[in-house]
Amino acid sequence: MPVQYAAIHEAAHAVVAHLLGVAVEKVTIAGDAEASGRVFNNYGDPLEHHGGEDWALLVRAVTAYAGRIAEKKWSVDVMRIAELQKSAGLEVHLDEYEVWPEGDYCDFTRAQECLEQVCGSGTIDDLEARAIAMAELVVDMSWGQIRGVADELKERETLSAEQFVECLKPA
């Protein structure tokens, strides 16, 4: 995965988790054979969260969806920039934005496993649609913070909990 997408993807996981009350211990775009990066979260005791076990599982699902949703949002931003450059008569270089194609992600499998634990197999589609909508809303509302964390990840590759929280503060 290109660095910009890995940074946006992992930043979205981290920011959304944080905003939903999950402690973020570390964020990295240092990839391995399994993933292009990781967010190390401390979900804590599910009873500490607002709704107990089901709420904790829903938070995990929403957090898992956030990475891919942020990637798609970044792609739309890249295409808008290209259109503006083109309409202004400027030369367009999409390769510098590292456009990333559609793909299937283990995050979606992880999210679906959490949702199945909440509702069984009967109403998963409805719950999944609500989890995705919630992730889209939180990503949209925190887009500036996600971009800020992503920029720091591109520079440092790994952020400690303290560095991550510092990125969230307004400039």
Topology (elements, then pairings):
Blueprint: H1 3-19, E1 23-28, E2 38-42, H2 52-87, H3 106-119, H4 124-141, H5 143-156, E3 158-160, H6 161-168
Describe the protein in words:
With 171 residues, the chain is mainly α. α2 packs antiparallel against α3. The protein is 63% helix and 8% strand. The protein is built from 6 helices and 3 strands; from the N terminus they run αββααααβα.
- Beta-strand residue percentage: 5-15%
Average predicted local confidence, pLDDT: 78
Rg estimate, integer Å: 17 Å
Give the low-pLDDT segments: none
- Structure annotation, total helices: 6
Order of helices and strands: HEEHHHHEH
Q: Would you count the extended β strands for me? A: 3
Task: Supply the key terms.
171 residues; mainly alpha; three-stranded antiparallel β-sheet; globular
Short structural description:
By secondary structure, this protein is mainly alpha-helical. It has helices spanning 3-19, 52-87, 106-119, 124-141, 143-156, 161-168; strands at residues 23-28, 38-42, 158-160. 63% of the residues lie in helices and 8% in strands.
